[in-house]
Batch of 2 targets.
Target 1
Amino acid sequence: MTDKTAHTGKNTGGGDVRLTGISKAYGSFTAVHPLDLTVPQGSFFALLGASGCGKTTTLRMIAGLEDPSTGTVFLGDTDVTDLPPYKRPVNTVFQSYALFPHMDISENIAFGLRRRGIKSVKKQVDEMLELVQLGDKARHKPHQLSGGQQQRVAVARALINHPQVLLLDEPLGALDLKLRRQMQLELKRIQTEVGITFVHVTHDQEEAMTMADQVAVMNGGRVEQLGAPADLYENPRTTFVANFLGTSNLIEAEVLEAGSDVLVTAGGGKLRVPGDRCTPAVRAGGRLLVGVRPEKISLTHADDAGAIADGRNRVTGRIADSSFIGVSTQYVVNSPAGAELQVYEQNIERDARLVPGAEVVLHWNPAHTFGLDADQDIDAGVESVEDAG
Amino acid sequence: MSAPVLTKEAPEPVEEPVLRKPATRKRLVPYWLLLPGIVWLLVFFALPLVYQASTSVQTGSLEAGFEVTWHFPTYWEALQEYWPQFVRSLLYAGTATVLCLLLGYPLAYLIAFRAGRWRNLLLVLVIAPFFTSFLIRTLAWKTILADDSLVVDALNALHVLDVTSWLGWTEGDRVLATPMAVVCGLTYNFLPFMILPLYTSLERIDGRLHEAAQDLYASPATTFRKVTFPLSMPGVVSGTLLTFIPASGDYVNSELLGSTDTKMVGNVIQSQFLRVLDYPTAAALSFILMAIVLVMVTVYIRRAGTEDLV
């Protein structure tokens, strides 16, 4: 504990990670386009994106394992761009853990301390083992541990050095789903406990949203959008973010009236979008992608359409498919406004008439609608097989 | 009560004949696969060894014939007479092994981590000398180390030979027919046996371990000392064994590149067998060499502790 206070004391001069104009090119391929990013001190920051989006390269440039082609890396007020990794007050939890197979767990954890010439490491190693709940495994070799345990050793080995920033490169990727959820909570607990800045790279949007205070969504070597998880989810600014974070229904529409309340038409029906939730500049006669999240939509059988309150956005359609998944039922609805609209209905009072083939009305509060630039690829960021890795 | 008893008993006689036969047959398969190797070892290794052992305790002469008389003093006499050759063999083989390690490690390291697309070509080049006969290659060294050769002239000009002569490795401005020539020949001939196992174990090391070490404040030198080298220990151990064991029994290099003052135990065994025709002494010398090497190797492997490595 004394170490921790000493450490935070050292950092009070502003311990943000600042990347300015940083980029990385391999030959003619640009992995990361020049980007500016500030990770506030003490925050849990996630870099989210599909494989090959440049998130890991960005992380490795902070660690010093990759030389940026342009730009500067600041830790606090110090320019560390030209420092080799072993001189940076930054530690990494590697995707494959990269534990030293010839050393036992406590030697693995003590590695960083020993390299800095600290002789009496036992007390700190014991504390770390306790933090990651592996006290009884101190003398085991890494290969004798399960994946989840190895992962915790990798975290302990990095954290014991009290780095200014802890970098996590898809640290949970190799774990099965249940263990992953458990480790997410564990990492979050550790981060809150030690108060160190965490930069977490992941392709799992759920992981990013549950763990991080701030998420930067990356795509094609660029940051698409940065913000708190709820903000990103509710107010996506690009189709990529709208589709990659959860699911979105995007409807191509034509603007009838601009203003604080935008009126658009799609598939013969009229919809309202709050003007301040439209990303592009809206003008009458222009095009707009209207978006709404599946869980915001209510489903009513066409026979009861009269009971729907006034002022709600409505779209008529026919149920193409439905799947019951316990807490909710997911419907796919085809409508003139758009094909395959997704609707998630809580299973509170189930209407027996809502089966495939039924004529229905989809309706939602206009405040839950957002507007995106119609010039984008409407399917950007839709999860496909190749994104899974 | 009777029903459960019946059902319990009933399946047993059914299961047994079905399950047992393939199980025993499966259990025997490994032994069948071992058979050719066992026969080979028996005929070409175990039997000659027994034959040699019996030769070493025989007495007699070529004319009168040899007879097993359990004459163990042959061992003691052989050791007494030829201990300088034993010491020399171990010294030369040891020096050559250390030189092989010093030359081979950087090369194996380069091939494993830095060679990129040249890796396979370099590996072929390491093995390339094997395309020529061992004898021809050693004879070539005779030319390389000849008195008026470029190498010797250069060493002379750099006054290296003054130092080596003072150390007793060379004589005057000669290299050929000196201990240095023999050690050079041994080093050259056994270098590939050092490089290949070293390469194999270095190549297996996950590159991310280097990154992890550097991330944890280890400079490149410390990374090598604490991570790369310990992890390459299996290669170091097998490379040194593959070099030291055959080198300690070698006689070709001493025969071709050395003199009477550089005789190794291999030369003695060879001449006892083929020229002096004193078979018991030759056999006893072989067994003594084998025993010495076995003891050294056992101690070495124990000390190196390679069984701890994954």
Note: The longest strand of chain B covers residues 58-61.
Target 2
Amino acid sequence: MSPAMTHVQLAANEASEHRPLIITLFALFVVATLFITVWAGRQTKDAADFYAGGRSFSAFQNGLAVSGDYMSAASFLGIAGAIALFGYDGFLYSIGFLVAWLVALLLVAEPLRNSGRYTMGDVLAYRMRQRPVRTAAGTSTIVVSIFYLLAQMAGAGVLVSLLLGITSDAGKILIVALVGVLMIVYVSIGGMKGTTWVQMVKAVLLIGGTILITFLVLLKFNFNISDLLGTAAENSGKGAAFLEPGLQYGATGTTKLDFISLGIALVLGTAGLPHILIRFYTVPNAKAARKSVNWAIGIIGGFYLMTIALGFGAAALISQDEIIASNPSGNTAAPLLALHLGGVDSAWGAILLATISAVAFATILAVVAGLTLASSSSFAHDIYANVIRKGQATEKEEVRAARLATIGIGAVSILLGALARDLNVAGLVALAFAVAASANLPTILYSLFWKRFTTQGALWSIYGGLIVAVGLVLFSPVVSGDPKAMFPDVDFAWFPLKNPGIISIPFGFLMGWLGTVLSKEEPDVKKYAELEVRSLTGTGAH
Amino acid sequence: MATDAPPPSKEQHKLPSPEEFTEVHESAEFGELRRSYRSFAFPLTVGFIAWYLLYVLLSNYAGDFMGTKVVGNINVAFVFGIAQFVTTFLIAWWYSRHAAAKLDPKAEAIKTRMEGGA
């Protein structure tokens, strides 16, 4: 028997011993959030309640909820794992994820809050022909959200099978279905109000859990960070290189280019993620939107700083073999670290492992709820109310459509999640960022700041960015031709980079410009004057 | 054209007419608000993106420099990374201060006048 096998079994045994405790904590979270959902559902009466939580949240509450929406399992488990295995290169992610918030703060949050109502499409279609632009905005919103959702659901499957020792196909499908049903319930009953409270609870749990583990790690090293880094470098077997950039991305010229591509997509993608954008509608005005972004920057920044302690702590206290045996991408490094900090065979270790695992579940559940809300809102408000019903639908009909869309999107996600349960879909999160940066961000910026921008420009930038980003990924090593690809056994990958951003983002911007200068229609200058005055002053804001 | 813009929600003041919007848009007061916003936000955006790209490029192509030890096991790469956090916090604080001092009062004045139905 190989040493790796022993480790897998060890991890599985450790996990199954703690199963009752993990399940209990997880059930507690589910019950508490279901209570919140039902309570919020009773207070959800009109469309502004369902889509925007009645616009009644405070800047701090929304800042917490934004953080909850943003800190996905990918950032919690993924970054800690990447640092644990690749050292410094794992940390590079968090910097892109954080700096990105400045784009949202300086250019997007306030104008969007001032001039839109419920969705990203409100702003994009403001001075354009409604039906084509709303169709495009809805399409892009749903594509971005579904990619993101799939990655989260598959992540839930992997995590649960590891932590609870469920390895059978039926078990994994059951987990995906459970996550899907819960997110349908959260969103269709609780709407934005319920989802926002779930995000806040999750953010507090995640921050609390991270502070606890960070404190325990630092305590082990007498709060000497240099010591922590040194031990991590030594224990990783990679020496000083572990603390320098390059272990993951420095291998070849192509991987370096890939890292630049990823970096650009991370920084420009955040301000184009629909589930983040709709959060700015939950506060009373643009000033509160600005303050909520500031809270989010503080909370998310603090969180990412702590992932340094988590990742290097795992590298310092656990052997690389054990981390890799538990999950080849390091996704279970954080829960393993909790176990080791408490003591592998002690009750305290079991409690810590269960707590961190439950926090990870809560994280996934809350993020999928946010994504589902964004896509069902866009379907109901952009596509159903404004395209299919041409603006003639009543509020009641619109909210009913949103609730039904939630069930539909949930069902599709369960189906896709179950089909993709054994595929490596973690790369889809980066793809969601790339599509958001290539299709949504150019269109948002042109709409808000470029007087001449036309309907044709908007359509070309959304569809151009979307098609090129998705197309390049389809032919990249994320999908085929790589041992870690979704379909490792076939090879139709002619595009060498895993992230399409370096091509697709400039392309999205270029298409928006080209579509505009080549369009035969005159830009609606009056309507732009109206949009600009509204977006900068908040006149007539909803 | 885009005639079916969403109607104002029930609790809102009256929405000014398209003519009023055009008029305000042409006014010196609004021009100043727009300049004050754009001349702050646009260069700063270019600046922080360039600063971030510098960090990405150095991480990629200046491994030796980034690996230089500063204190104990803490090297230039770490200092640079933490500096990105610090500048992000500082820029957020700086923009918010600018907005509160220079943008909010102007925006508020225009909004009040327009919604007041002057």
Note: The CA atoms of residues 454 and 521 of chain A lie 8 Å apart.
